[in-house]
Amino acid sequence: MTDRAPFASWLNDTNDVISVFLSAGQIPGLINLGGGLPSPDVWPVEEIAEISGRVVREYPTETMTYSPVPGLPYLRDVLAKRYSTDNVPLTRDNVLVTTGGTQALSLIGQVLLNPGQKIAAQSPTYLGALDAWRPRTPEYQPMILEAADFDPVQDMTGAQFAYTVPNFSNPSGRLVGLEQRKELLAAAQKTGAWLIEDDPYGKLYYDSDPLPTLLELSGDGTPYSGPVIYVGTVSKELAPGLRIGWIIAAPEMIEALATAKQGSDMFSSGVCQMTAAKAYEEGVADNALPRVLALYRARRDALCAALEKHLSDHLTWEKPCGGMFVWAKVKDPAIQTEQLMRRCLDYGVCISPSSVFDPEGKDQSGIRINFTLNTPEKLSEGAKRLADTIRSFD
Ligand code: PMP
């Protein structure tokens, strides 16, 4: 029998930890603090049902046939208007519609990375970004923004791009302050690296008004040509099931990314694009936001109170001021968090281990805990189960 050609070598680098915690949500009775899911209570089900039916009837051509690769002009215009400021005047040429933020990250890798090239990535790093770029086998320079000797110029030198989630990073929940945003931009200008601003949580500020984005800070009032490649998504503002995301960048960058998209999926669903466009235009996301913030703020507070009650002997963490996650360090260095994650499943709770947010898969010191999916009661029970699991290592 002829041997089949082997799989690409990067597949051998992935481990099974990721699939364990991603599929744990299916286990009956388990409290899932491991995923990054929005609460079903905030999905605008009736509005999306009504709008999607309406757009198919009113715009059969846009929704039913093949769409232009960069996106429907209608949605590109809505997004250009939504993100335009005096400093950053945008047109549809600055916008590429993608199939979720995930495809945006993947296209960026295809266009900007040759195999083995360097990425300066905010550390710890979003797992989906690591997955998107794994086929390019990049070299990672971790950017540790909270380190006293953090030097973005040094980190970005020689990198094709720098990757950051300035608003409530996944996994760390960290908010990058205004001064550091400016430093990142200055370093990108100095080194010539592109600056990827991945911003799914940009609206989820619980304690203060939003800071300006890197995109906003980098404009000078002329047509946008800056170093920022901004990635947005409907996933946390409307619903992840629509699978609509976008990239905002200089027109030449959008053209290059559109070429990559053509070979990837040709275009994103016209029904979903038109639904997202109308939902934004008709204020569905903006009107829902106060309720979303109230719900998530209460859940954040509930989780932090439960951690305080059950886990202060075992974990250290900072209360995040937005987003969806608490990032905690395990005090006992003997506990490896991958092992902890597996044992947690026996105790009926799931968390995600820090190793999956490390390009080298080595960091065993921390865990990511999600607070948006579960009710305060479940969060409290989940924290108790986590404490029981940690105590079982004694
Ligand atoms: N970036 C980050 C940091 C995320 O947390 C997510 C969602 N988990 C995404 C991008 C992409 O989300 P989506 O593909 O659902 O738009």
TrEMBL record:
Pfam families (UniProt xref): Aminotran_1_2
Sorted UniProt keywords: Aminotransferase, Pyridoxal phosphate, Transferase
Domain of life: Bacteria
Residues covered by the Aminotransferase class I/classII large domain: 59-386
Cofactor(s) the protein requires to work: pyridoxal 5'-phosphate
InterPro entries reported in the protein's UniProt record: Aminotransferase_I/II_large, Class-I_PLP-dep_aminotransf, PyrdxlP-dep_Trfase, PyrdxlP-dep_Trfase_major, PyrdxlP-dep_Trfase_small
Gene Ontology biological process: alpha-amino acid metabolic process
Keyword Transferase listed: yes
Molecular functions (GO terms): pyridoxal phosphate binding; transaminase activity
Name recorded for this polypeptide: Aminotransferase
Organism whose genome encodes this protein: Donghicola eburneus
